[in-house]
Sequence to fold (273 residues):
Amino acid sequence: MRLFTFFLAALAVFFAADATAASPRRIVSIGLCTDQLLLSIAEREQIASLSSWAVNTDMSYLADEVGDIPLNDASVEAVVDLRPDLVLASSFAAWDTARLLRQLGYEVRQIPPVGSIADIYDLLRRVGDWTGNAARAAGLIDEMQQRLAEIEHRYAGRPEKTVIVYAPNGFTVGAGTLENDVFAYAGYRNLAAEMGIEGFQPISLETLLAANPDVLQIDRDLSRSDSLATAYVDHPVLERFSEQRERLDIPLPLRICGGPMIVDAVEAMASRR
Fold:
């Protein structure tokens, strides 16, 4: 009897371990950036639903690949109806839905913000592990690294340029940001980072003019035309200054999320040097 009891206990442990190791079959994403990661890494039949942002062509790099995958509004009710065995979310979006789902007993994985291309590699590995697609994630990382090396070689002979980003409310991007790392890979010096600015911080228009960058990126993509925040980027002095400078406009879908598409952003910038 003791031997039989031991056998049953061992069998239960085996099946529990096997269930834990099994790849999730109904994955739901409730944010744009996790939509992109799932479409890049997971098997299509694993994806039970993506957020409604996935088909927004102004923001989603992979909008054309969504096809007939069901969409959700990132609400708790919508996710519960989908009966997921894994929910992917961002730590910076729909966090309240993620918290409530976790309290209800659902497995929820949240991705952190990325501050570099190396962080993207780590993110791809995580999602590969979570979804049971580690080999596919590793392949994407290898492809990204190969493409970045090719871009560096292709444009190595071109001179380095200086750049500053100016965004609504007078914000710029400094050190410790994905944008700053993209600038470096593309052969640009981010003058905001050289001033000691870290993360996303405001910069005065006078400081920007005095820095005299070769290239100016005025970011209007995420603001409403009638908002007070947009008045900063529509300032007439900035407009006159920008007329004498090269303007950089990298499409939002290439840079709003951390993923393999960031290499396209690097190439778009490097080709403009």
Remarks:
- Residues 1-20 have pLDDT under 50 and may be disordered.
- The CA atoms of residues 172 and 214 lie 16 Å apart.
